[in-house]
Amino acid sequence: MKDDDRQVLRFDCGATWLNLLATRGRCFGADPVERIATPERLGEWLDRSELSPTRPPSMADVRQAQALRETLRALALAVVAEEPPPADVTDELTRFLDATPDHVRLVAGERLTRQSPPTAVAALGRVARQAVDHLTGPGRQALAICPESDCRGVFANPTGRRRWCPSPACASRGRVRAHRERRRTGADGPSGG
């Protein structure tokens, strides 16, 4: 996989907060991929998520986005695994939410929208609230974890039919490994499939 391909922002995980988790790829591998390392990249991600803040992101906002992402990842992995969430991580998210109130102001235009968040942190507060709603509501039952050991990406799987996260690399590696295992054990029939 080319380095440029590894840096592509992902918007296919099923929810904005899950797409935030995908801004760091191969998190559990030897060579993680950071996709929002600069204020410009964070700004691009927020813009494509329809959360462009009035004020452009700063490097401090990048660090806050990365910290929030890892907090949400820890909670999501626990929820999907049906394990108790780490108390310190839960407390960290609660503190973040308390510090970033979001007063909803609707804008009626060609379509109904919310007023733009004033800052990147306010935009991230909206993402965090979406995550909390998803992790504590019935939608949590449709979450899955990619089985690739270096990925372990969390994604929405409402049909329960997906085996891997939406990353083509994970599905490809998983299929190749499964094919090799079938060949090794003789599970492939005469047709090879």
Please give a structural write-up.
With 193 residues, the protein is mostly helical. The chain is 47% helix and 8% strand. It contains seven helices and six strands, in the order H-H-E-E-H-H-H-E-E-H-E-E-H. The protein has helices spanning 3-6, 16-21, 39-48, 59-80, 87-99, 120-136, 168-185, and strands at residues 24-25, 33-34, 106-108, 112-114, 143-145, 154-156. It has a two-stranded antiparallel sheet. Strands 3-4 form a two-stranded antiparallel ribbon. A two-stranded antiparallel sheet has the order 5-6. The chain is globular and about 60 Å long.
Brief synopsis:
This protein has seven helices and six strands. It is mostly helical and 193 residues long. A hairpin with a 3-residue loop joins strand 3 and strand 4.
Which terms summarize this structure?
two-stranded antiparallel ribbon, 47% helix, 193 residues, mainly alpha, 7 helices
